[in-house]
Amino acid sequence: MKRVIAVSGVHHSGKTTAVEMIVAELVRRGYSVGTVKSIHKEGFSIDAPGSNTHRHRMAGARMVTALSDGETSVMMEGRASYEQILSWYDTDWVILEGARGVACPRIVCARTQADVEERFDEHTFAICGPIADEGGGGITHWRGVPLLDARVHYREVVDLAEKLVPKAHNYETVITIDGVRVAMNPFTQEFVARTIAGMLSSLKDGSPEGDEVHIEIRRF
Questions:
Q1: Which of 61, 102, 137, 210 is the most buried if burial means most Cβ atoms within 10 Å?
Q2: Cβ count within 10 A of residue 212
């Protein structure tokens, strides 16, 4: 079961540095880690205009996969929801850089107290960034939440995460075809369930909360 943390903050508040230190420490502790980077730049695309893959997309392909000996990159049309994205990860931890507004345990990175106020919410369990630098003003807590310099006290940050961040829910998925149950391993069950949950969360009218979802598909 994966655990998810958001590392949020204003521009140049030390988010990427905090993510680097946290990822490295989690890996040292034997965990597998995935990350998601939110990029707020109008018109940004990871694909280079004029490249072969870009030409595929311009021709109308909704999903393009680029394969090399050392990397697989998948580019798809539109912005996926965090629920969908998380369903693609099978790591012990996923660190979301950015993800303001996502309801999950959060580390706020900040330069000033005003920055903290802008990003602080009920999910915040640690504050990092320049405001938490050694000797940076003598503030040790904000509304009961500790300030920790992630460059120095990354172990303490990860200790807090291990203690406070819950594991994501397990999913059981059952699919039957004409009454015959389809065999699926636990990873496939979770992948299918999280994909469907992500699709439901993206519906314009929203979807009701619940522990069970039943879908019927009939072929005529």
A1: 102
A2: 5
The three state secondary structure string of the chain is: CCEEEEEEECCCCCHHHHHHHHHHHHHHCCCCEEEEECCCCCCCCCCCCCCHHHHHHHHCCCEEEEECCCCEEEEECCCCCHHHHHHCCCCCEEEEECCCCCCCCEEEECCCHHHHHHHCCCCEEEEECHHHCCCCCCCCEECCEEECCCCCCHHHHHHHHHHHCCCCCCCCCCCEECCEECCCCHHHHHHHHHHHHHHHHCCCCCCCCCCCCCCCCCCC
For residues 83 and 85, what is the distance between their CA atoms, to the nearest angstrom? 6
Contact call for residues 111 and 17 (beta carbons, < 8 A)? no
Question: For residue 99, which of 203, 214, 9 has the smallest C-alpha distance?
Answer: 9
Answer positive or negative: Cα dihedral of 97, 102, 103, 107.
Answer: positive
The whole-angstrom separation of Cα 79 and Cα 83 is: 12
**Strands 106-109 vs 124-128: parallel, antiparallel or unpaired:** parallel
- C-alpha distances (whole Å) from 184 to each of 163, 175, 190 are 32, 9, 10
What is the token pair recorded at 134? 């050694």
Task: Tell me the β-bridge partners of 33.
Answer: 93
What pLDDT does residue 168 have? 65
Whole-prediction pTM value? Answer: 0.72
Angle at 32 between CA 121 and CA 107, to 5 degrees: 15
